[in-house]
Amino acid sequence: MITIKTHYKTIAKAALVCTAMLTLSCSDDYLDVDPEGQPTVGSGYFQGANVNKAIVASYAHLLDYSQHSFSYSGVFSITSDDADKGSSPGDTGADKAKLDNFTHDATDVSVEGLWGANYKGVATANSGINIVNNPANNLEESTIAEYQAEFKFFRAYHYFTLVRVFGGVPIITQETDPNDQEALLTRNTKQEVYDFIVKDLTEAAENLPITPAQVGRVTQGSAKSMLAKVQMYQGNWEEVLRLTNEVIASGQYALHPNYAELWRIQNENTEESIFEVQGSASENIGIDNMATHHGVRGQWGWGFDVPSQNLVDAFDAAGDKIRKNATVIFRGEVMYDNDLYEDDANLSAVVSEDAPNPYYSEKMYFGPESANALEKNLIILRYADVLLMNAEANNELGNSGAALESLNQVRSRVELPAITTTSQSELRDIIWKERRLELAMEFDRFFDVVRQGRGAEVFGPLGFQAGKNEVFPIPQDQINLSGGLLKQNPGY
User: Fold this and answer.
1) Which of 323, 354, 378 represents a domain boundary (last residue)?
2) Global pTM value
3) Same-domain pairing of 199 and 315
4) Which of 335, 350, 378 lies at the terminal end of a domain, its last residue?
5) Tens of pLDDT along 361-408?
6) Rounded to whole angstroms, what are the CA distances from 169 to 38, 73, 93, 393, 432?
């Protein structure tokens, strides 16, 4: 596997070659790729069935440790009021204790990891677009359009991560001159990045299939749902409503009847799944490590990123037993596979010292009696999120009746009473609370609160500073490599 360094120039050059796409594999049939040598972008190799091998790296990259593991859960979860750092008090987890109290800085590994991982994903997508566009590969127009759409979806996904974490970042495409330092190293504005994401996802939605070619591949619904979320972050409620209405009307998705089953290995890719990273017994170091570092310390894992008392109290205040029990592992609980999270009376002295946390994340559970965590999937988008986006958009646009219909579908699944208020302000607050409980420990809470403009209000007691902590620092190594062209975010 080619190592793609995080320096922009290196990344841009990597976007113009394809050899990195040939040595990654995953268990699902569309990702099973054997090494085939070193064909170049325009070699003519990527024809017929071989064109499928050009897409493998974008999917396989999602399983990379740098993309979806310790850095990801640190920035997306530990920073929020849903989660605490966990582990033991003396185990800082590199910068995870700093993320927990907002003392992180530009030298920390999590920001460096997410920066490099997502630009590697951008480079892989750019390389794929070059491959399918090259005349030497002699592809049918319909094939070119569909594969371009798939690569653009992934490029948009990585830029959506980057813009939420860092704000404005350099936009690098397959057409960016690798020798143009200004283009490679100068940050675009936040709005320019969002506009670029919208363009990619709009084009992706126009050309992706309605139903996946194989389980786990992205579809028109994946692109529209992601685009709706991007528009929600910008407050473009008419677009959020249009897109979510289209996804709902497509009939491709539904709420899975049993909320607790959604994260179990034997229940992956349910009717609720819209975009789900496919685990692989052969190549899944990222999600495997994420599941392990969430696992009960001293029994199944390292014990980081644990549900907070604040989250447990929020479930209790709402009378939400089903989602609480599906989200949080409690001491003494017998898991669905009959394994026991031992209570204090049963823990040995050594394990008692190593398991100081009363709660652990059940959504990342795999346990010793489950299949290997390498096979565990990671849900990025699901239908309940679409319904809640639809409810929020309808409420912001004054359509309280339609908002209640979507909201109450989500509540009914977990046996909660229907909401009836038509007050826009009251309903807004209820929908925000519903998003928290429905999507708890799913890496959504921090950026959800920030886009709602409530960062200081909600996270202030944790150390959040308005005007600074809405975004994270640009990695200092990247600023050094740029010779100062990259400018740091305020306050860091």
Assistant:
1) 378
2) 0.90
3) no
4) 378
5) 999 998 665 556 778 899 999 999 999 999 999 999 999 999 999 999
6) 32, 21, 27, 28, 28
